[in-house]
Amino acid sequence: MSRSAGCCQSCLHSLFDYETSKTLVIPNLGVGCLFRFTQLLVLLYVVGYVCVVQKAYQETDSVISTVTTKVKGFAYTNTSDMEPRFWDVADYVIPPQSVNSFFVLTNMAITPHQKQSRCPEFPNPSTTCVDDCDCIEGYNNPRGHGRLTLITIPPLSFLTRLSLRPAVLAVAENFTVLIKNSITYPKFNVHKRNIPSQIRSSYLKRCEFNRKTDPDCPIFRLKDIVSEAGEEFQDMAVKGGILGIIIDWSCDLDWWARPCKPKYSFRRLDNKNPSNNLVTGLNFRFAKYYQAPDGEEARTLIKAYGIRFEIIVFGTAGKFGIVPTIVNLGASIAFLSLVPMVADWFMLTCMKKRDLYMRHKVAYLLDDDDTESVPMGTSYGTQ
Amino acid sequence: MSRSAGCCQSCLHSLFDYETSKTLVIPNLGVGCLFRFTQLLVLLYVVGYVCVVQKAYQETDSVISTVTTKVKGFAYTNTSDMEPRFWDVADYVIPPQSVNSFFVLTNMAITPHQKQSRCPEFPNPSTTCVDDCDCIEGYNNPRGHGRLTLITIPPLSFLTRLSLRPAVLAVAENFTVLIKNSITYPKFNVHKRNIPSQIRSSYLKRCEFNRKTDPDCPIFRLKDIVSEAGEEFQDMAVKGGILGIIIDWSCDLDWWARPCKPKYSFRRLDNKNPSNNLVTGLNFRFAKYYQAPDGEEARTLIKAYGIRFEIIVFGTAGKFGIVPTIVNLGASIAFLSLVPMVADWFMLTCMKKRDLYMRHKVAYLLDDDDTESVPMGTSYGTQ
Amino acid sequence: MSRSAGCCQSCLHSLFDYETSKTLVIPNLGVGCLFRFTQLLVLLYVVGYVCVVQKAYQETDSVISTVTTKVKGFAYTNTSDMEPRFWDVADYVIPPQSVNSFFVLTNMAITPHQKQSRCPEFPNPSTTCVDDCDCIEGYNNPRGHGRLTLITIPPLSFLTRLSLRPAVLAVAENFTVLIKNSITYPKFNVHKRNIPSQIRSSYLKRCEFNRKTDPDCPIFRLKDIVSEAGEEFQDMAVKGGILGIIIDWSCDLDWWARPCKPKYSFRRLDNKNPSNNLVTGLNFRFAKYYQAPDGEEARTLIKAYGIRFEIIVFGTAGKFGIVPTIVNLGASIAFLSLVPMVADWFMLTCMKKRDLYMRHKVAYLLDDDDTESVPMGTSYGTQ
To answer: Could you give the C-alpha distances from A114 to A111, A161, A294, A296, A375, in angstroms and in order?
Structure first.
């Protein structure tokens, strides 16, 4: 045979000869039990905790959500400091439509019929500017008489209320809101809605969400939302606030899991009692603009207090995936490979016959001459 | 030598002596091939599936997005039940600006010139209250004559339409919308826009999105959006609805990957034909407020039907990362460490010479006396 | 003893006999050092990089956020082409309230007192239609005289400005905005706010965000926001734009970590100088509607330029978690299991006494007869 053929054969040998480790069987119940018990512990962790509890074999995806809300309710107000008035949804939901949230007006301070005009004179404590006369506040470098500013014509139809309590639209607590929410998990191509398709329309016309009796009804009474969040509606209505309607769509999409349903919870999102006495509640100013036939513009300035309800949709869907399964199995196998080290250490350190085991398991190569020997009384760990 | 020096030397020995396992080479082609083949399978899985298909070596980040929309188009309506009217973007996009969505008015029911006034008498079937006269509905405990409510003065300029079909602004299907979308992957400090910088302005002035011919054009005709979502614009315009413009920014940011571009898709988000007959479509009420020179306020109540287009931007960017690479490599190595167990089991169970192999591979320590023996006919797995 | 008892005992043996690998100790400092050094490298990577730098032992969760904004400031404009006017927040924040963003009007083009009316004649260059007379633009198939359109009555109180420069509300740069942001990490049940509770209200009344001196103050001057984003407010005010107020809530929630605080940064989100000369800036059209006592409707059309400030809240919280810890430890253990292979390869290839080591470590089973032999000069890798 030529040299190259021999080399080739040697290569083939080193590729396809199977090299396996020599082992020693020790028929000792103690070590055997410890070994199997430790294996069992690791397996229990893997099967029990990682798979069943943590579902680490799942791929995950985050929710994409769309929300539509529709508030319903009428109010009639007749207080001493305001003209009697009738309110419907076009009056108290501002803006009329927004995505993922809706604002319900509960209280207000109105400054009617403001006009761009000139201050009759430089304001001083003796002049009759009250509250919203911005002669001073608005312009930091007043240049004396006749400067242009907003002045408030004595109101014709409304009076600015002297106190915010009680809230004008205290009755808003009886308004209801219908929440339609449809979600998508794009990675798994799953679409779901918060209104189950088997619910009858007759039920939807009269139902109201109740955690115990009507957990599937998508119609919420505002008072219930606020009280589930641990707040008092009448208190919150005075100065406003932000209330989260939190919809949790956490889903297990594996076929053996239960079908997933939204879980509603409610929480006040703004700081009710800040220690630093910062302005609390929620309010903003907006104006209704009018134009007289001669082109002169006037406005009604409204400082609106109210509750902004934010619909916060979150959730993670999990579904069996190859990669996370492999990664977690791999980690578990790596831990299983530690078990013999534990058993070896126990065997060579704590057992009565450890010297015997050591002698048979470990060979000691004497560096000087070409012989093996067994170590005497020194225990070597296996790596 | 002192005792402590001997102890120290023994410690050094146990630290720096190298302990390696004794092995047995078996020159059997069957076992060798099985061993290499199984190794190959695991490697193929790692390289092929985990790396190439799943890109498990990548770190991921979620997209942060900003959207601006600009609708363009004019409409002229001249139907029998409404005065002729000319519409532009300030009339039909409500609110004029919102983030991540825009609402196009397509149909409406108008109740003009409502005033806060007293009902002339307690309403009963013989009085002429129609539809929006809220004398009854608005106040649940009527106290008889003269109660304050909203009454509708006979309209001067508009008539409430008797039927919703066809949609008033059916022509809205020809409106176009320009969508500007810029995104960020904060972890990778990557910023991108949906309008490629190499596109010429002359092209942007005349182009229109078309999946085949103009996939990069950011200007969409509303009709096309709706029909790509599998809906009929004229049907949807009557009662309104929600349409998702879904922009998928899934990106592979590794330098060898193709540059990432947004992928547009369209889907109706609300339930078109709910089995439970729930109110379909999308509408909301809003009012335009007017004030007469004497301070009396009136309003035009508009029940607006229309299509809300929601721009939903999602995506995950992946880029080579050390930690996921290490984790996946580690899992693969752990699986590779299982391969010898498979080969051992095959060798000691299925091969003709299994007793021979067993005799040489496994030593059996007899517990009673201090000798080794080879097991007879019983196969022991390796762990 | 019966056969079944023997079988049972054999089973028990194979279950509880402990099988351990036979090892050979090689007292060579070179191999020992290499072995320990490689182990040390892997451990350093695991402890140093994976744990300390990448915090791969943590579970993560994405932030859920709520934002309230409140703009403050007054402006007084007195330019040659507009009537003097006084502006407050109800005039320049449009819409008055929105979630996660606010729009500040900085410039405008006003077309006052538009009425639905008939064009006196077909428009041609000699007729006096300018800019917003939509006789041509609005209707593509003009049918001659008398067609209905929007005409602009000569303005009474405002004039359309001939040039956009300078911005009408250039003074808006001195407006301030209070940003209240509360966040939740639902998986860890952690709630936080951007206004630290220990801050006194007296401080909040006068403070202004400054990266160096007042990093905790939640009140931002618009000019500072824009200049931190590397832009010039006066430039941006003319044509508008989108400015991101980015709040990074990346948190380490382990108890030994520092308490987490929001990090503010600012970035212009729209394309300032697009190469394709696309319309830059941000503007939209909206209308204020008026009604004359005779029911005739007019509107003031406003093309509003301004800066939309988008509050973008992002962040990932990490906290010690069992599963990621196990997975990363497992991967590290798997890598540690590679270390003996490296040392074996070095020992059997590079050492002077490699033949001696080989002879003692590896036994070669001759296939033909039932004897072992040591290989001569051929090095076999261990797997």
So the answer is: 7, 16, 16, 11, 102
| pLDDT tens profile B362-374 | 888 876 555 555 5
Q: Which distant-in-sequence residues (6+ apart) come within 8 Å of A174 by Cβ?
A: A73, A221, A222, A223
Nearest to A86 among B149, B271, B310 (CB): B149
Same domain for B215 and B137, yes or no, is no
Residue of chain C whose Cα is closest to the Cα of A302 = C90
In chain A the first and final C-alpha atoms are separated, in Å, by 43
ipTM over 0.90: no
Statement to judge: residues B144 and B273 lie in one domain: no
Residue B139 counted as domain residue: yes
pTM of the model: 0.83
Q: Are A221 and A233 in contact (CB under 8 A)?
A: no
Percent of chain A scored above 90 by pLDDT?
32
**B269 & B298 share domain:** yes
Considering the domain architecture, whether residues B135 and B74 belong to the same structural domain is answered as no
Last residue of a domain, one of C106, C138, C155: C155
Any idea how long chain C is?
A: 383
Structure tokens at B320: 């080579």
Q: Which of B320, B335, B358 is the last residue of a domain?
A: B320
Task: Give the residue ranges of DSSP H helices in chain A.
Answer: 3-16, 29-44, 89-92, 201-206, 222-228, 233-239, 322-336, 339-349, 354-361
Examine the domain organization and report whether C192 and C271 are in the same domain: yes
Shared domain for A263 and A213, answered yes or no, is yes
Task: Let me know if residue A6 belongs to a domain.
Answer: no
Residues A62, A187: contact at Cβ < 8 Å? Answer: no
Sites in chain B below the pLDDT cut of 70:
1-3, 81, 117-163, 274-279, 367-383
Q: Which residues in chain C have Cβ-Cβ distances shorter than 8 Å to B290?
A: 289-291
Closest residue in B to A293 (Cα–Cα): B293
Per the structure, the complete domain to which residue C232 belongs is given by 61-120+163-320
Please list, in sequence order, all residues whose beta carbon lies within 8 angstroms of the beta carbon of residue C302, skipping any fewer than 6 positions away: B90, C108, C109, C110, C111, C285, C286, C287, C288
Q: Are B68 and B180 in contact (CB under 8 A)?
A: yes
| C300 to chain A: closest CA residue | A291
Contacts of C28 (CB under 8 A, 6+ apart): A367, B17, B18, C347, C351, C353
Q: Per the CB < 8 Å rule, is A363 touching C198?
A: no
Q: Are residues C135 and C254 in the same domain?
A: no
Residue C6 lies in a domain: no
A346 among the known binding-site residues?
no
Question: Which 8-state DSSP code applies to residue C174?
Answer: G
Which residues in chain A have Cβ-Cβ distances shorter than 8 Å to C323?
50, 54, 56, 328
The CA distance from A373 to A383, in Å, is 19
β-strand pairing of B219-221 with B190-193: unpaired
CATH number reported for the structural domain that contains residue C218 in this entry? 2.60.490.10
Query: Domain total for chain C?
Result: 2
In angstroms, the CA B99 to CA B309 distance is 11
- Can the peptide bond before residue B27 be classed as cis, meaning omega within 30 degrees of 0? no
Look at strands C372-373 and C75-77 and give their pairing: unpaired
Q: Determine whether the annotation assigns residue C72 to a binding site.
A: yes
- Tell me the count of A-B CB pairs closer than 8 A: 243
Task: Quote the distance between the C-alpha of residue C62 and its chain's center.
Answer: 11
- Nearest Cα neighbor of A347 from A337, A359, A336, A335 is A359
Q: Is C181 among the annotated ligand-binding positions?
A: no
**pLDDT tens-digit map of A70-104:** 999 988 887 776 778 888 898 899 888 888 899 99
Q: Which amino acid is at B99?
A: V
In a domain, C332, yes or no: no
CA distance, residue A144 to nearest chain B CA (Å): 31
The minimum CA-CA distance between B68 and chain C, rounded to whole Å, is 8
Q: Name which of C380, A337, C26 is nearest B20 in CA terms.
A: C26
Whether residue C98 is found in the same domain as residue C245: yes
